[in-house]
Amino acid sequence: MRDVIVAIGDLVLDVTIAPEGQLRLDADRDASIRIGGGGQAANFCAWAAALGAPTRLVTRIGDDESGRRLRAEIEAGGVEVAAVVGPDPTGTVAVLLGPSGERTFARQRGAGPGLRPDELRPEWFADAELLHVPAYALFVEPLGAAARRAIELVRAHGAPVSIDLSSASDIEAYGGARLAYELAKLRPELLFATEAEAAALGAPLEGLAKVPVLKLGARGVRVYGRVLPAPLVEVVDGNGAGDAFAAAFCAAYVDGATPLEAAGRAVLVSARAVAQAGARP
């Protein structure tokens, strides 16, 4: 029986900094600083588990205190972790928040990108009801090869695949045409993108996935040409909102919701995500 939503990608430490006022060179500034778990795949799993979906994270972490604590934290939230432990340190991401919740990232990716295809166990994917792949996992090797192998494993028993385009700047660095060609070969059932990510890709989403989902920020989401509005909320922290959206959409979709119904649930959950501090529920 296929009954687990599986995601493959990073589990990292997020250090989130919200300065009180404008930063200036060579000047001190008070700030709110939070430390917690992050990583797109991990955030996706945390939100899916919080919504009641059985969830598994396939990842690679370091043999260090950070990796052990992050693993224990996400497992306490109901996520099963299938982790390869490597010699590299667990990754860390610094998130700088602007006054309206906008984000700038600086990252040390650490152990995550080192996940190899031969380290994957078939049983991690045998009961997958859906596989979620943040596109950043496709941008670096050997993690990219591992993600493609995971797609092969779940496709062997007919499970759908969702891909989130992840980052406009990463798409530009990787090459929009190159990624579009790869997506055309992978043919994900679900494809999530912001307007900036879709522009960086430079190809119509409709030709790349069964269900293309365009996230419009505060304006909501567009699915099959129909725009569903998002609730009006005060934005506290946009970090993790896209992962919350994808998790809610996928959880509803595998539970039998239509794409429009799934999108309606997803905009509500992502609104909840931006109205709170932190990337996790």
CATH topology: UDP-N-acetylmuramoyl-L-alanine:D-glutamate ligase
> How many structural domains in the coordinates?
1
Strands of the widest sheet, in order across it, are 5-4-1-8-9-10-11-12-13
**How would you spell out the order of helices and strands?**
EEEHEHEEEEHHEHHEHEEEHH
> How much strand?
25-35%
Strand-pairing-aware structural class: alpha/beta
Profile the largest sheet.
9 strands, mixed
Average pLDDT over all residues: 94
CATH level-two architecture: 3-Layer(aba) Sandwich
**Can you say what the CATH homologous superfamily is?**
Ribokinase
Low-pLDDT segments: none
Name the CATH class.
Alpha Beta
Report the C-alpha radius of gyration, rounded.
Answer: 18 Å
Number of strands: 13
What's the helix count? 9
* Shape assignment: globular
Distance between the termini: 28 Å
Helix amount, in percent?
Answer: 25-40%
Give descriptors for this structure:
single chain, about 280 residues, alpha/beta, UDP-N-acetylmuramoyl-L-alanine:D-glutamate ligase, nine-stranded mixed β-sheet, about 25% strand
Give a verbal description of the structure.
The protein has 281 residues and is α/β, with parallel strands linked by helices. It has one domain (4-11, 38-90, 110-274): Ribokinase (UDP-N-acetylmuramoyl-L-alanine:D-glutamate ligase, 3-Layer(aba) Sandwich). Helix content is 34%, strand content 27%. The chain has a nine-stranded mixed sheet, with helices on both faces. Helix 1 (40-50) crosses helix 8, helix 5 (168-174) packs parallel to helix 7 and helix 8 packs antiparallel against helix 9 (259-274). The protein is globular and about 55 Å long. It starts with a strand and ends in a 7-residue tail after the last helix. The model has no long low-confidence stretch (mean pLDDT 94).
